[in-house]
Amino acid sequence: MSPMRSMSSVSPKGPTGPKSPTREVVLTLGPATARVRTRAVLTVATLALLAFAGLVASVSLGTFAVPVGDVLGVLFGGGPADARLIVLDLRLPRALTAVLAGLAFGLAGAVFQAVTRNPLASPDLIGISAGAGAGAVAAIMFGGVTAAGAATFGAVPFGALAGALVSAVLIYLLAYRGGTITGYRFVLVGIAVNGALAALTRWMLARADIDQAARAMTWLTGSLNGRGYDHVRWVGIALLLLVPLTLALVRPYQLLQFDDDTARSLGMPLARARIALLLLATCLAALATSAAGPVAFVALGAPHIARRLAGTAGIPLITSGLVGAALLVLADLAARLVLDPIELPVGIVTGAVGAPYLLLLLARANRAGRGG
Amino acid sequence: MALRSNPPAEPEAELPEPAAPRAGAALTGRGLRLGYGSRVVADELDLAITGGRVTALVGPNACGKSTALRALARLLKPTAGVVHLDGTDIQELPARALAQRLALLPQTPTAPDGITVRDLVARGRTPHQRWWRQWSREDELVVDAALAATGSAELAERSIDELSGGQRQRVWIAMALAQDTDVLLLDEPTTYLDLAHQVDVLELVVGRNRDRGTTVVMVLHELNLACRYADHLVAMRDGAVVAAGPPAEVVTPELVEDVFGLRATVIECPVAGTPLVIPEGGRRVGPTGG
Asked: How far apart, in whole angstroms, are the C-alpha atoms of residue B89 and residue B71?
C-alpha cells in the first residue's frame, strides 16, 4: 500500500465558520475520483463490526456455550475439536444465513422505499413475501416435503423463490402503464396482490393436515431453525451476483429519490433505471425470504434505522443492508435465548420489536401527509 | 495501488473564469401534438425559442404552456411533431448529452429528506460525472459559483427543509445553474413567492442570461413581470400560440382580452418602459380555458 493522503474538500465558508461541516474526502486514482463521507464510512464500519459481533455471539451462546476465544479460533481455522463441531457444524450455518438474509432484506427494503418514494414500501407489505409464503406452503403441502426432510434444504426455498417471483411479475404487469411503473401504482397494486396471495395461503392451510399446517405456520412466521450450508450457499452465491449489480446502480438509486422531472432532467433514463432497481430488489427480497421465511420488519425497518445512523440525505444503501444483517442475526440470537430452552421463530422477535416501531412510523407519515 | 489526492482546495482563491458568452442554443418545436393519455392538450403547435434570449410563456391556466415546456425538455414525448435543439432532434440525443445542454427546473421539485444545500446543488453536476469520476475540481468550482451567484453560499451546510420558500427556490435554481447548460427551462419559478422574492428570482435568471448568454424559457403567471423580464413573449390559449414577439409589440388590450378574457388598460411602465397591464375588473368576457 502506498501512502494515501486525503483531501478534505468541503469547508464551510460562512463567517460563522464550521457549524456542522459535512466531513468528506475525495479519493483520486488517475482520472477516477470518489467522494466519501467520513461519518458514512464510520457508520458502515461500525455496523459491519456489530454484525460480525452478532455472528460470533450467536455462534458462542446456547445450551453448550463456546468461549468467544474458541469461536474466533475456529473461525480463523484453529480451535479445539469439540468447539469446531459446535461452531462449524451446528451454529455457524444458521448465523451466516441470518447475516446474509438480513443483508438482502435490508438492501431490498432500501431500494423499494427509495424507488417508490414511499417509507412504508417493503416486501412484507407489497406482496413479495406473500408470494413467497404461498409458494412455500404449496411446496410443503404438494412438494413431498416429509417431516424428516423439513429441516433440510428441500423444495421449500425453491417454492418460496418461485412464489415471490411470480407475484412480482404479477405486480409489474398490473402496475405497468405508459412505458414505466410509478412508485405509487407499484405499492397499491402490491397491496392488492398481497391480499389475494394471503387468501390463497390461508385456503391451502385450511386444507392441510395438521403436521403440514404446523410446519407451514413456522415457516410463515419466519424462522432460521435448522439452516445448513445449503442455505448459506444458496443465499451467498446469489448475493455475489445481486449485490454488485445493485451497488452499480447507486447513482440512479440516489437520483430516483428526487421527483421524476428533476431526475430525468439530470440525465437519468428514469423508466429503465426504476425497473432495473425494482427487479433487483425483488430478487433480493425473494432470495432472503426463501432462506429465512417472511421475517417481519427487517426490510421495512432497516432503511429507517440506517438513515438515522448515517445522517445522509435520503436512504443510505449499504448502511441499510448492514443494519438488516445486524438486526436479523441479533434477533435470531434473542429468539434462541429469551425463552431458552424454548426456541422462538425469529419472526416473532422482529415482529414484536417492529410493530411498535411501525406504528410510530405510520403516525409520523400521516403527520407529514404521506401515510395516505 | 496508487492513490493520490487532489491539490488542497483554496476556498476564496479562484472561482471559474466567467465563461465567454456562448450563443445559447435555439429550441424549436414544429407541429407538436401533446397530451396525456388520450387527452390532447395541444395540436399542430409551433414554437420558436431564439437562442441567447429570455422567453416567457404566458397564458391562462390549462392553456398548455407547462405542457409545451415539458415537451421542449423532452419530459413529454410528442405524439406528433419534433423538437429541435440547435437543429438536432432531441429524441435522438442520449439522456446524458441532453442534460449537459438543457436543464429544467420543475414547478414543485422534491429532494430526498434532509439533503443539504451544497449536496443538492452538487447533484446538478450529475450529467457531467461518471460512476468512476464522481467529483472533479471543476465540479467543485461550478458548485461554488452557483452557490455564490444565487446568494446561497452561507446556506451551504443547512438542510433545505429548514429554508424559507424564497431561499429554497434560489437553491433549486443554483442546482440548475450547476448543471451548466446552454438552455435553462423554468416552470413557474415564482409560484408561491412574495413579490420581492419573485423579482429576486427573475433578476437572478435574467442575470444568468446577460452574463452567459444562456437561453432561458420560463412559464410565468404574472403578465407584468413577464413583460418586464422577458425579451420575448409567447402567449398561448387552448394549446395554441396566439401571439409571439417582444412584449412591447405583443401586449395590447386586445391581446389581454383575447388570451385571458380580461378587460385591461395597457400603459408604459414608468420604471422599465415595458408594457404594464392594469386590469379593469368587472365581468369576464369571452370563453377561455378555466
From this structure: 12
Taking an 8 Å cut-off on Cβ atoms, the answer to whether B95 and A1 are in contact is no
The partner residues of B234 in beta bridges, in order of sequence, read B57, B244
Nearest Cα neighbor of A259 from A191, A182, A186, A185 is A182
User: B77-109, pLDDT tens digit by residue?
Assistant: 999 999 999 989 999 999 999 999 999 999 999
Taking all residues of chain B, what is their mean pLDDT, rounded to a whole number?
87
- Report whether pLDDT(B22) > 60: no
Q: What is the pLDDT of residue B20?
A: 46
**Interface contact flag, A313 B100, Cβ < 8 Å:** no
Average pLDDT over every residue of A263-284:
90
- Inter-chain touch A315–B112, beta carbons under 8 Å: yes
Chain A contacts in chain B segment 67-96 (CB below 8 A): 70, 73-75, 95-96
The DSSP secondary structure of A201-234, one letter per residue, reads: HHHHHHHS-HHHHHHHHHHHH---TT--HHHHHH
pTM of the model: 0.84
Instruction: Give chain A's mean pLDDT.
Output: 83
Which of B65, B71, B76 minimizes the C-alpha distance to B244? B65
Distance, CA of A41 to CA of A316 (rounded, Å): 11
Please state, in angstroms and rounded to a whole number, the distance separating the CA atoms of residues B147 and B131: 24
Q: Where in chain B is the domain with CATH 3.40.50.300?
A: 24-101+181-246
Q: Which amino acid is at A60?
A: S
**Section B60-68 average pLDDT:** 91
Looking at per-residue confidence, does B283 or B62 come out higher? B62
A2–B2 C-beta distance less than 8 A? yes
Who has greater pLDDT, B75 or B288? B75
Among the partner-chain residues A7, A19, A265, the one whose CB lies closest to the CB of B75 is A265
B233 bridge partner residues: B56, B245
The residue-averaged pLDDT of A207-211 equals 87
With a CB cutoff of 8 Å and minimum separation 6, the contacts of B212 are B18, B19, B21, B22, B24
Burial of A339 (0-12, 13-18, 19+ CB in 10 A): exposed
Chain B residues within 8 A of A4 when measuring between CB atoms = 3, 5
Give the mean pLDDT of B34-54: 90
Superfamily of domain B24-101+181-246, CATH level 4: P-loop containing nucleotide triphosphate hydrolases (3.40.50.300)
